[in-house]
Amino acid sequence: MQMSSRANNKVSRGDPIELVIDGQTVSAFAGETIAAVLLLQDKTSCYRTRGDRPRMMFCNMGVCFECRVRVTQNADSRWVLACVTPAQANMRIDTNVDLSHWIAGTEPTIDHDVNPSTASTKGGENNDV
Ligand code: FES
Prior knowledge:
Elements: E1 16-21, E2 24-29, H1 34-40, E3 47-48, E4 54-55, E5 68-73, E6 76-81, E7 92-94, E8 97-98, H2 100-104
Parallel strand pairs: 1-7, 3-8
Antiparallel strand pairs: 1-2, 3-4, 5-6, 5-7
């Protein structure tokens, strides 16, 4: 889905913003959740389990924790729940990051200069969460 997939009839939106998802600059509107932006970009994975399985949002209300994504902003990098976190201008969002880093509290190595479909953020044991 692209920006044209959004409902437009009688909808008021925040200001247009740009952010980066997996190395690609995308457009969104202030006030939208990261989850909404990911869905509009046809993303099919928020993070990967230690067994390398993609996981995607399920409840969309902050309960299931299946929408964890890695966000970098203002030199700060952290995990957030995409469904309850507003998208902000200049956020860098990385999907497909290995969840073992969340569990271990370690910083994933994310090479923003490589193709995100081939980038590796794996680490830890080969067990599912
Ligand atoms: S989709 Fe369930 S917590 Fe975000």
